[in-house]
């Protein structure tokens, strides 16, 4: 590859990678959009227009799920979110989860309606009934609703064809242009429609939302345009316009709404040549190659989702005004976040042309892809089915030969490939990827009918998606060096900037994401009696990906490691040996002073036992909505069982499982605790008395918890922690090992004697104190340089010496007091087992 093209690709790569973190605007916009659309669909429901509302919810869910994915991709570092961003992020997810609930409800209503009116004909004209039928038959094979229930939208009969300009027609007819602009998603239409009748072809593409609705929309006139001329929106600074309920004064909700609902005739304005004469080049300019590329990728992604469009989805401008109608709380939208509805932020960022209304500018990433019809006429939408895409991709990736970390390390290896996965007809078995070939075989699962027990077939794919055990260097690496590495979140940062791999890498990323979502949906679909929304939240917030810790990363603590191996790792790796009386324990507690490596140990257990790791804290389980926390707890255990072997790690368990006698405890935490205890009990198989147990008992889920306050744990919970492992302050040898590990990659002049002296000087330090000390000492040589630091070459900086440690020791002190230690020792003697 010549240097010019390498340079081009490199700069493109860095552009894509180094986008500044500015999620606030996007999150604000997304939040506002979901909120507004939610209100609108709820209104539709109120008006008993269930079908339209259902379509709307479907489209909204698909759109939002996609937007969230894109946001995560664009701003991968969620830890750096500001408070406002983090709360918006949570808000978006909450609204999304609610919308899933609404969707479910509407589905039920519609189903009930259709069953009570069997003779009623569908009001849509489905052009490709064959494919629709096919997708219907797929609806029982366990794919998620996103995959298996493609939304069929009829080809419009109401869009006046004369409204299309020649320019538009040319753009759409030319397959090359379509492909370049990313319109290839519409290739799914039957050939007959794409032939000589250019108008019918155009009917399939509804660009209306992409086009500013402004000029001819009554709604826009009634609200937006009035203010647009002054370049100021009502919510921008005029508080007087908002009443105490958060509603806007001076707007007659019903009138606005009536404008929209009763003016369906006038909506033909929306279909006028102006509104449909949309040329992306005109709007965005033709030179934006990067975004073209982005668009192409986005389309690729969207093609593989079953994209729905809302029959009655309000156009952007309307949604802004619709947010004004009715109190947000009424629809479960938090008023505290109404600022998110405000348009000005959008105005600043998205505006490219001062003459255009930014509000009505399409969101390029989606609006022309998730083509939302603007008309109230149910027929003015399009059909788009691509039900087979995700399953196919799933199978494709699943057929990669597996190489588990255990193979590398010489532990018994499992089946390195699963031919059955290559053939969708063949049963998918979980056994295939077990690290040890088990004498008792698991029941195969056919793709035709999903077993309740293991709907996702091969655990290796779930493991590679969800388990910390699957390292980015091991998963799939044998078959595809630059290829799919499901976990190892930092693969992007690790990747060498090899220009030829850039596009491939990005596509892999998308493929992985899509696969992951598809699998999550499959799993959720197969969980009975579990709240879908809660299960989604578990996947989104609690399942930990990547960031592996291995035994050798932890200095010392040999006793604790041995105990964990016996209690968890071996039983998880050799379930056939650990049955009946030898069944593995379901609860283990790590307790001790802060910073002694409890969390590290838990993570390494998950890595070494190839388990799915669920990291739970009080904050992740607590919801301010009544009953939601219990649903989360139930979903947590259900998903953990499904993805077993699993480790549910609860850090600071005392904050969830505090003593129930505590009078200050509130009702909500009491309910979480009770639900947790109930679910936890359900893990015990009661197989201890049976001769060999059964393979049912192999569903291994361990609750592993850590605490600095073991004495405040509720007694019922304490009983369930069959092992209570004390993790004390590091012994001298452990300190020595840890110090040498920390210095192993640094230039230093410490001799063996120096190490001995240092170990003595750090008596009473915890593991994290030692890490802090070493970090501070490593700064010594740089501190000495003062301002010269900026000019000194790296190799001229002197090595770290004992004196640096000594000077750091002047202000870095042990964090645990002697009295504190005595308390731990006492509790360990009474309830725990020691194991340094
Ligand atoms: N045995 C150890 N080996 C290597 N590093 C250690 C060890 N113990 C502690 N550390 C260091 O201390 C840091 C904190 O460890 P960790 O979070 O596991 O402690 P913890 O016991 O869970 O603390 P807390 O109780 O406060 O949550 C680690 O990131 C690591 O740098």
Describe the structure.
This protein is mainly alpha-helical and 836 residues long. It folds into 4 domains: 15-387, no CATH class; 390-525, no CATH class; 551-729, 3-Layer(aba) Sandwich (Rossmann fold); 732-815, Helicase, Ruva Protein, domain 3. It contains 37 helices and 6 strands. A 6-stranded parallel sheet has the order 2-3-4-1-5-6, with helices on both faces. Strand 3 (646-650), helix 30 (667-681) and strand 4 form a beta-alpha-beta unit. The two termini are 56 Å apart. The model is unreliable at 13-20, 118-292 and 298-499 (pLDDT under 50). The structure holds adenosine-5'-triphosphate. Residues 554-557, 594-600, 706, 708, 738, 767-768, 771 line the site of adenosine-5'-triphosphate (ATP).
Provide the structure class. Answer: mainly alpha
Side by side, the strands of the main sheet go: 2-3-4-1-5-6
Compute the CA-based radius of gyration: 30 Å
Mean pLDDT: 60
How much of the residues is beta strand, in percent?
under 5%
In total, the number of strands is 6
Give the tally of structural domains: 4
Give a quick account of the main beta sheet: strands, pairing sense, barrel closure: 6 strands, parallel
What compounds are bound to the protein? adenosine-5'-triphosphate
For the record, give the distance between the C-alpha atoms at the N and C termini, rounded to a whole number. 56 Å
Total helical segments? 37
């Amino acid at each position: 590859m010549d240097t010019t093209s390498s340079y081009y690709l490199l700069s493109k790569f860095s552009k894509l990678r180094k986008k500044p973190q500015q999620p606030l605007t996007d999150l604000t916009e997304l939040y506002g959009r979901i909120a507004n659309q939610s209100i609108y669909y709820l209104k539709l429901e109120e008006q008993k227009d269930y079908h339209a509302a259902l379509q709307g919810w479907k489209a909204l869910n698909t759109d939002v799920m996609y937007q969230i994915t894109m946001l995560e991709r664009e701003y991968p570092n969620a830890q750096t979110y500001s408070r406002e961003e983090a709360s918006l992020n949570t808000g978006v997810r909450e609204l999304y989860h609610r919308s899933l609930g609404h969707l479910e409800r509407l589905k039920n209503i519609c189903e009930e309606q259709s069953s009570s009116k069997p003779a009623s004909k569908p009001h849509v004209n489905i052009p490709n009934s064959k494919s629709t039928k096919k997708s219907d038959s797929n609806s029982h094979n366990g794919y998620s609703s996103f995959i298996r229930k493609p939304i069929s939208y009829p080809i419009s009969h109401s869009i006046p064809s004369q409204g299309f300009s020649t320019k538009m027609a040319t753009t759409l007819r030319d397959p090359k242009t379509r492909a370049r602009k990313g319109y290839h998603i519409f290739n799914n239409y039957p050939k007959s429609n794409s032939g000589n009748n250019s108008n019918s072809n155009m009917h399939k593409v509804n660009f209306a939302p992409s086009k500013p609705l402004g000029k001819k929309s009554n709604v826009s006139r009634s609200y937006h345009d009035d203010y647009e001329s002054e370049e100021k929106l009502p919510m921008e600074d005029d508080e007087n316009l908002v009443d105490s309920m958060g509603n806007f004064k001076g707007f007659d909700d019903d009138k606005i709404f009536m404008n929209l609902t009763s003016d369906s005739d006038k909506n033909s304005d929306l279909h006028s040549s102006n509104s449909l004469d949309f040329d992306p080049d005109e709007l965005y300019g033709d030179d934006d190659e990067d975004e073209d590329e982005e668009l192409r990728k986005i389309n690729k992604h969207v093609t593989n989702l079953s994209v729905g469009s809302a029959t009655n989805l309000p156009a952007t401008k309307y949604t802004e005004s619709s947010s004004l109608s009715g109190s947000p709380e009424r629809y479960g939208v938090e008023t505290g976040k109404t600022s998110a509805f405000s348009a000005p932020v959008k105005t600043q960022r998205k505006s490219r042309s001062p003459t255009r209304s930014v509000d009505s500018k399409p969101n390029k990433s989606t609006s022309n892809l998730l083509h939302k019809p603007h008309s109230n006429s149910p027929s003015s939408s399009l059909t788009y089915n691509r039900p087979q895409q995700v399953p196919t991709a799933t199978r494709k990736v699943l057929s990669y030969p597996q190489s588990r970390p255990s193979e590398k390390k010489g532990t018994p290896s499992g089946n390195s490939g699963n031919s059955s996965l290559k053939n969708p007809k063949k049963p998918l078995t979980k056994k295939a990827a077990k690290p040890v070939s088990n004498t008792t075989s698991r029941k195969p699962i056919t793709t035709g009918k999903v077993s309740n027990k293991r709907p996702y077939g091969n655990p290796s794919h779930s493991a590679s998606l969800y388990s910390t055990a699957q390292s980015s260097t091991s998963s799939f690496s044998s078959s595809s060096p630059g290829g799919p590495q499901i976990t190892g979140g930092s693969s992007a940062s690790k990747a060498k900037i090899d220009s030829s791999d850039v596009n491939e890498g990005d596509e892999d990323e998308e493929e992985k994401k899509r696969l992951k979502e598809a699998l999550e949906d499959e799993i959720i679909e197969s969980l009975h009696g579990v709240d879908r929304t809660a299960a989604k939240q578990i996947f989104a917030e609690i399942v930990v990906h990547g960031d592996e810790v291995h035994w050798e990363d932890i200095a010392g603590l040999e006793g604790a490691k041995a105990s964990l191996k016996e209690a968890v790792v071996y039983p998880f790796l050799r379930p056939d040996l650990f049955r009946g009386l030898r069944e593995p324990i379901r609860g283990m507690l790590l307790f001790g002073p802060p910073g002694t490596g409890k969390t590290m140990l838990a993570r390494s257990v998950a890595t070494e036992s190839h388990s799915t790791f669920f990291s739970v804290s009080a904050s992740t389980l607590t919801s301010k909505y009544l009953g939601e926390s219990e649903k989360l707890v139930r979903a947590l255990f259900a998903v953990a069982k499904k993805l077993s072997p699993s480790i549910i790690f609860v850090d600071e368990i005392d904050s969830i499982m505090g003593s129930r006698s505590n009078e200050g405890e509130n009702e909500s935490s009491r309910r979480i605790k009770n639900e947790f205890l109930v679910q936890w009990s359900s893990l015990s198989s009661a197989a201890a008395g049976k001769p060999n147990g059964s393979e049912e008992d192999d569903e291994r889920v361990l609750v592993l918890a850590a605490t600095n306050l073991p004495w405040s744990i509720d007694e019922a919970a304490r009983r369930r922690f069959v092992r209570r492992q004390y993790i004390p302050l590091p012994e001298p040898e452990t300190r020595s090992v840890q110090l040498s590990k920390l210095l192993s990659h640094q230039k230093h002049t410490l001799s063996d004697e120096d190490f001995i002296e240092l170990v003595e000087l750090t008596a009473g330090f915890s593991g994290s104190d030692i890490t802090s000390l070493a970090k501070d000492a490593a700064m010594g040589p740089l501190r000495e340089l003062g301002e010269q630091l900026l000019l000194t070459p790296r190799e001229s900086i002197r090595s770290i010496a004992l004196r640096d440690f000594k000077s750091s020791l002047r202000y870095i002190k042990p964090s645990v007091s002697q009295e504190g230690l005595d308390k731990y020792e006492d509790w360990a003697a009474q309830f725990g087992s020691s194991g340094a």
